[in-house]
Amino acid sequence: MRTITRRTPVTRSLALAAVLAGVLLFLALPQAPTVLAGEEAAATPAPSPSPAPAPAVTPPRPPVAPGAIRMRVYNLRYRKVDDAYLLISPYVGPRGTVKMQPSQKMLTVIDVPENLSRITGIIGSYDVPPRSVEVQVQLIMASSAPAPVSPPPPIRGVIDRLTALSTRWNDYRLLGNARVLGTEGEKSSLSVGDDYRVDFRIDQVSDETKVIRFKPFELQRREVSVEGLERFSPVMNTVLNLRDSQLFIVGASNVEASNRALFMTITASLQRP
């Protein structure tokens, strides 16, 4: 007896559904990129660095117009404001002005740039620490003596110069020789011999010309009254402008109907720091 098995349509349908489900599952999986033979995978480019910030640029200052008025303030450390004002006044232009504040030692100058530059240089060379000056003074009595004596060594060089000026005197005697260290802007005094005294003030020292200005420079002589009181009377009072370390000779006075004459030598020497 032969048995015959029949496949039903339901069984084939189930098998077909299973195949379709497998295909769909394969397509849903992520696929790796395909690299062909002989080719390299392209490298992922690195991120480009961010550009550095540009440096700050200061805009150029506009040029100063010719004739423009500017202001500058000067604070003085060593000199008086009044003296500095007198010094710079000739250099202030017709459009310029100067304001003084002595209590604050301040000068305010308004002028064109050219004049301000010149005034700055003048004040810079003027407002410096006071200089020290050594002052040496000699007093020499000259006379016409019938039998002159040999002069002492300190005044032999001076006598040669006096003789060149005049042949009237043939006898010279040193009355005194003294020196003192003075300071610019201050008063000083020194005794010369037994009967004379010199008072002076070093008014100004010029760095450019090396000229030392004395204002005043006074020679005084000691006198004793009948009562025995001592006082100094003026012999000479003047203003001197002496060059550094240069010997200066001045006739101080004539004595006793011009039979004798008093000469004074002065040497001012700047002291270097």
Described by strand count, sense and barrel closure, the largest sheet is: 4 strands, antiparallel
**Number of DSSP-assigned strands:** 11
Strand content: 35-45%
Question: Number of folding domains?
Answer: 2
Unreliably modeled segments = 1-11, 32-44
Class from secondary-structure proportions: alpha+beta
**What is the straight-line distance between the termini?**
149 Å
SSE order:
HEHEEHEHEEEEEEE
Helix content: 10-25%
Count of DSSP H/I helices: 4
Spatial order of the strands forming the largest sheet: 5-4-11-10
Rough outline? elongated
- The Cα radius of gyration reads 52 Å
Whole-number mean pLDDT = 80
Question: In words, what does this structure look like?
Answer:
By secondary structure, this protein is of the alpha+beta class. The protein folds into two domains: 57 residues, Ribosomal Protein S8, Chain: A, domain 1, CATH 3.30.1370.120; 139 residues, no CATH class. It has four helices and eleven strands; from the N terminus they run αβαββαβαβββββββ. A hairpin with a 5-residue loop joins β7 and β8. The N terminus is likely disordered.
